[in-house]
């Protein structure tokens, strides 16, 4: 905005008439300088506009990909024969049954850790809160509170004073470290923070210059030799329970092989909104049930980003990967790769704030979804690669990693595909009564009835166990609301996972992604609504279809335009390499590599097409053309042998 005002002022200065008839040389020179400034500002304004357009396209394409995913899925289920639908129905129910069975098994396995945690609290209460380890034998603890001040400037002082005054731990063995970054000075807040170090000798405040992330802040702190035995990482919005750090340290003292202790996170503001209440129940399910249950089931725990305690030597060597969106999950999986032992301590409690608006929730979970996709892609090799030297990775642990990384990511597609299948059935056979809807969706086949009943029973069993270990801020009403909306919540979270996957595919963001979507639109509309497609044989249709063909079709689903753009993109790909290194070898290599890169997706797509048409035949396509009168597309050619397939790929 300020630069736009400078542009206006410069233009007015150039256009302002001079007092004399003839301008002096200095006036002419000044006008030229202003004109140069005007040109520079115009170029800067155009660059900003182009950057905004590019950012808009990059944000738009994932949304369009997910939207087209649902449209295509529902459309396919509508046109597929009943025999194929039956197969999909049982596949989705069976896989969803596996997921439900895994979740309820984890829930039942979490009962023992929860019971042990309660017994431990009762024993300590009976002893007047005297813990097994003497104060003078405790490890030295560094609590690291990581902050980004523009976002957390209103709470940083409060959280700092809370940590200094409320945490019950020997003062000579506890240090509070505020590690923050800010793009611009924030006064008098920063001065107030540093002044606190004069009052509290165990407080250290560190401003990390040129930092752009939590990982940068932590990695800078890891370069400082503080002399501590254990480091605990907290986000700024957390309130650690006064005895939380002590419980975590007792776990380290109880077993010298433990490298990481992850505490339980509880939502503090559960009553602020309906969404916050649902997140609070979800957090209880995750931290009090799923995490300890999974650790018991698969034999490994995970660091979850905040309220996590590491042995200092390990963490300083380990560091955080700033290239990862969720550096916490990445660090946890890298620790697992090394064979580090991570455990979950349910009594090491910390309270945090949940998003109270849908916009903030979407932003948070979208980053988590994309980060999990990134970490899963990077670390899924832990399922089959060799264990770290001197460490053992059992088959159970490997299958646990497979379930955590690959199956969990695939579950987004299973949940959404089942949703699309159900929606297509409702569209085709719209029920007249609620009972008819229930029979259509859940009770079409005897086996599916049992799978559905077992899955629902597993869900209620998991929620019942969660309710038994709920935090103090959760009410029965919140649990009822969570149970009612849980199926919708699952679909919403699965959709968000798909969105995260779409954002993770960088090469399809922007223009290339739009071209892919436009290609889909061209094929889809030419098949089902040919009258809206420019160049289609069938041109008769309703008025709105004719209008769309003459307006939007020219730009958004135009066959000739799509071919032209793909040729331009291929030429650009080849030219970029040539411009970087202008040699004959380079341009020849770029052309050769481009051909191979195109061959693999074409070969895979053609193989899938061949398999589908071999299984279903093509008679229904001719039947559809006859009934609809649509002559705008050809019936696919069936490849007779491997040689024809090979020639088709390179054609």
From TrEMBL:
Topological category with respect to the lipid bilayer: Multi-pass membrane protein
Main location: membrane
Annotated keywords: Glycosyltransferase, Membrane, Transferase, Transmembrane, Transmembrane helix
InterPro entries: Glyco_trans_2-like, Glycosyltr_2/OpgH_subfam, Nucleotide-diphossugar_trans
GO cellular component terms given for this protein: membrane
Protein name as annotated: Glycosyltransferase 2-like domain-containing protein
Listed transmembrane segments: 60-80, 86-109, 410-430, 450-467, 479-499, 511-533, 554-579, 599-621
One annotated GO molecular function: glycosyltransferase activity
Entry superkingdom: Eukaryota
Domain (Glycosyltransferase 2-like): residue spans on this chain: 252-428
Taxonomic lineage from the root: Eukaryota, Fungi, Dikarya, Ascomycota, Pezizomycotina
Keyword Transferase listed: yes
Alphabetized CDD domains for the sequence: CESA_like
């Amino acid at each position: 905005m300020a630069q736009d005002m400078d542009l206006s002022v410069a233009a007015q200065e150039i256009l302002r008439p001079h007092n004399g008839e003839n301008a002096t040389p200095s006036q002419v020179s000044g006008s030229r300088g202003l004109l140069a400034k005007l040109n520079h500002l115009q170029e800067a304004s155009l660059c900003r506009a182009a950057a905004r357009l590019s950012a808009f396209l990059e944000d738009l394409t994932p949304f369009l990909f997910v939207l087209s995913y649902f449209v295509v899925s529902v459309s396919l289920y509508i046109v597929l024969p009943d025999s194929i639908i039956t197969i999909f129905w049982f596949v989705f129910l069976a896989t969803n049954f596996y997921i439900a069975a895994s979740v309820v098994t984890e829930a039942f396995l979490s009962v023992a850790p929860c019971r042990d945690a309660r017994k431990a609290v009762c024993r300590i209460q009976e002893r007047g809160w005297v813990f097994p380890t003497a104060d003078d034998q405790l490890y030295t603890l560094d609590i690291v509170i990581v902050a980004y001040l523009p976002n957390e400037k209103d709470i940083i002082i409060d959280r700092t004073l809370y940590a200094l005054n409320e945490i019950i731990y020997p003062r000579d063995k506890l240090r509070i470290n505020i590690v923050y970054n800010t793009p611009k000075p924030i006064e008098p807040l920063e001065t107030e923070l540093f002044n606190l170090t004069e009052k509290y000798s165990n407080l250290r405040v560190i401003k990390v210059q040129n930092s752009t992330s939590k990982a940068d802040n932590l990695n800078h702190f890891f370069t400082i030799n503080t002399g501590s035995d254990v480091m605990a990482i907290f986000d700024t919005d957390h309130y650690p329970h006064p005895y939380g750090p002590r419980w975590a340290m007792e776990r380290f003292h109880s077993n010298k092989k433990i490298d990481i202790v992850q505490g339980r996170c509880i939502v503090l503001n559960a009553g602020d909104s309906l969404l916050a209440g649902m997140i609070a129940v979800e957090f209880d399910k995750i931290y009090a049930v799923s995490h300890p249950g999974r650790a018991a089931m698969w034999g490994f725990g995970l660091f979850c980003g905040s309220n996590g305690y590491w042995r200092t030597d390990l963490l300083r060597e380990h560091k955080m990967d700033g290239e990862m969106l969720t550096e916490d999950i990445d660090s946890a999986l890298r620790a697992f790769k090394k064979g580090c032992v991570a455990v979950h301590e349910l009594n090491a409690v910390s309270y945090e704030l949940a998003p109270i608006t849908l916009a903030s929730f979407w932003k948070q979970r979208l980053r988590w979804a994309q980060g999990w996709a990134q970490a899963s892609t990077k670390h899924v090799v832990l399922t089959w690669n060799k264990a770290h030297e001197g460490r053992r990775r059992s088959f159970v642990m490997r299958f646990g990693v497979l379930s955590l990384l690959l199956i969990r990511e695939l579950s987004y597609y299973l949940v959404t595909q089942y949703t699309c299948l159900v929606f297509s059935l409702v569209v085709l056979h719209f029920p007249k009564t609620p009972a008819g809807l229930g029979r259509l969706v859940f009770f079409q086949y005897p086996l599916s009835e049992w799978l559905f009943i077992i899955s629902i029973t597993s869900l209620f069993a998991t929620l019942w166990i969660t309710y038994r270990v709920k935090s103090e801020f959760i009410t029965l009403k919140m649990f009822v609301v969570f149970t009612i909306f849980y199926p919708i919540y699952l679909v919403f979270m699965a959709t968000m996972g798909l969105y995260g996957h779409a954002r993770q595919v960088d090469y399809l963001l922007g223009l290339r992604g739009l071209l892919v979507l436009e290609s889909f639109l061209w094929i889809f509309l030419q098949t089902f609504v040919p009258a809206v497609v420019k160049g289609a044989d069938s041109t008769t249709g309703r008025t709105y279809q004719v209008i769309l063909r003459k307006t939007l079709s020219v730009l958004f689903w135009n066959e000739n335009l799509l071919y032209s753009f793909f040729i331009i993109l291929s030429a650009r790909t080849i030219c970029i390499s040539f411009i970087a290194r202008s040699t004959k070898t380079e341009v020849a290599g770029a052309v050769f590599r481009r051909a191979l890169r195109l061959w693999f997706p074409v070969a895979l797509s053609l193989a899938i097409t061949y398999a589908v048409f071999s299984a279903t035949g093509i008679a229904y396509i001719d039947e559809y053309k006859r009934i609809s009168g649509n002559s705008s597309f050809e019936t696919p050619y069936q490849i007779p042998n491997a040689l024809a397939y090979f020639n088709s790929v390179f054609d």
